[in-house]
Amino acid sequence: MNTTRHGVWRRIQPVAAILAVVLLIGMPLWIVVVTAGKTQGEALNPDLSLPTTWQYAENFAAVWEQGRVPAAFFGSLLVMVPAVIGVLALGSLASWVLARRSSRRMAVLYALAISGIVLPPAVVTVVLLLRQLGLAGTAIGMIGVYMGMYMSTVIFFVTGFIRTIPMELEEAARVDGAGPLRVFGKIILPLLAPVLSTATILICLYVWNDVFYAFFVVGGRLDTLPLNLFQVASAGLYLENWHLIFAYVVLMSLPLLVVFIVAQRKIISGITSGAVK
Amino acid sequence: MTAQTTAIPPMPPAGPSASRRPTARTDHRHRASHPATFLIPAFLILGVFFFLPTIFNFVYALTDWSSFKSEIGFVGLQNIQDLISSGTLLSSLRITLVYAVLVAIFQNLFGLLLALLLERDTKINRFARVMFFIPVVMSALAAGYVFQAILKPDGAANAILSALSGQPVTIPWLGDTTWTLVVVALIHSWKWMGLSMLIYLAGLKTISEDVLEAARLDGASAWTMFRDIRFPLLAPALTFNVATALLGSMNGFDIVQATTGGGPARTTELLNIFIFRTFGQGLFAQATTMSLVLFVVVVALAFPVIRTLRKREEVL
């Protein structure tokens, strides 16, 4: 009896899986894609119907102009790339020392370094601080804030990983007379590729999509993709202009979506291997 | 995150665990080869951009800092008293906690159900997993707008329900002072359930086939096997998922802002929505005070929750 029930499940499961995808993911995404191609009047109440006339070109051109997509795209890149490279480089360097040394002072420093995983960033006073530093509204200030926010994640990931790397590997290089920075750069850093790629994926996701912290730090001064989506949608300019909002959503999601589809196997295995020991 | 803007706490990577942790006695040997100066850049960034603003939080919550005057004066506990007496503090706090608990429940329930549904490594299941991960990759703000369009009074949801039931359905999904919070928590869970699913799938993979086979031979039903064997063995995945869901939703902003903006009648006004709104009005000290409240609540809740969940793992 047990086996027949098993057999029934095997036959139903693919149907259930496809049904779940269509209802939970397919329908919302379908509404986005068809509404982005409609005229304003047709898009007033977004639904599943196809547009009578497709006007992707007109809608994309409109948001490209009004949503300042090129500026926002480069603004997002300008902040994300240095923040991610910086936090990974500085975080890994510190993690190496935190993983290899074991005095009580190092344990305290490690606890302090990873506390940011749980603690929420002080989003209001960081604005005041940046003003005092002369970095208010600048890309450099935003990069610093993101690095501060994700430093703990990187140190936690990387320190745990380095502890699994045998000491002998670096000792051989040290005997050959290599200094610490050389040992780190030549021996340790290449071995960190798997953990660094997982951290890169997660931090890129968060930084690319962030609007809350960006609003406080660079709102109105620097264009980023989520910030511009938020501004145009809440300024009333796009109110009830669902065709334009969704055209913007499509444009904005495409870069990450393409990266994800191309590298999905690596991304998924990277995230899961890091999460469950 | 998106709404989940705080870094999710990852577990140490798989592999031979901590096999090479140096002992205190060998530490002096590492001093020259692993100089403490390497810590300086990372701690400088952490100190300036993370810890210093946090300390400022405690200071400026006691001032009348605002955009209306140039000087900043000390007012003591005035801000916190105002927020308590107006009822804003307690209502925002209650809404944030209810939201966090709802998200933790829904996101884990959906993630676990999806993981169980898509457990076998078939072509269809692999495709479905990728599809369910798309919302995780999307911007939470965009996800919020999508659901605002679907759930507005004359939106797609009510249209489909009307067609199915044969009579006009006009449910105010995003306009109800009681239930909209639940609806928004469901949207938040929809956005992140793909991540929980992946973590549960990884957890299910670690359960040895022998254990399951032995139970099957003993005649255990699928439900008994799940309740007594698989679910308890998913404890590490559950810890991770509950902790990330709680942290992500306590710091929630994007999805609520994009769907309701805190309404109707501020019944979905999370702490971060309040901070955003009062900051926009130039009431910087109030926003700082609420930011401090969020900090204290997360500290007070996160550590006990993580400890309790960890203890559950050790029992095994």
Automatic annotation (TrEMBL), chain A:
It is a multi-pass membrane protein. The chain crosses the membrane at residues 12-33, 73-96, 108-130, 136-162, 183-208, 242-263. Residues 73-263 form the ABC transmembrane type-1 domain. It is found in: Cell membrane. Its main location: membrane. It holds the Pfam family BPD_transp_1. It comes from Promicromonospora soli. This is ABC transporter permease protein AmyC. SUPFAM superfamilies: MetI-like (SSF161098). The gene is amyC. It comes from the Bacteria. GO terms for biological process: transmembrane transport. Coiled coil: none annotated. The keyword DNA repair does not apply. Keywords: Cell membrane, Membrane, Transmembrane, Transmembrane helix, Transport. Belongs to the binding-protein-dependent transport system permease family. The lineage of its organism: Bacteria, Bacillati, Actinomycetota, Actinomycetes, Micrococcales. GO terms for cellular component: plasma membrane.
From TrEMBL, chain B:
It is found in: Cell membrane. CDD domains: TM_PBP2. It comes from the Bacteria. The chain crosses the membrane at residues 38-60, 97-118, 130-151, 231-250, 283-306. Its main location: membrane. Residues 1-27 are annotated as: Disordered. One of its GO terms (cellular component) is plasma membrane. Gene3D superfamilies: MetI-like. The keyword Cytoplasm does not apply. GO terms for biological process: transmembrane transport. InterPro entries: ABC_transporter_permease, MetI-like, MetI-like_sf. Residues 93-305 form the ABC transmembrane type-1 domain. It is a multi-pass membrane protein. Keywords: Cell membrane, Membrane, Transmembrane, Transmembrane helix, Transport. Belongs to the binding-protein-dependent transport system permease family. This is Sugar ABC transporter permease. It comes from Promicromonospora soli. The lineage of its organism: Bacteria, Bacillati, Actinomycetota, Actinomycetes, Micrococcales.
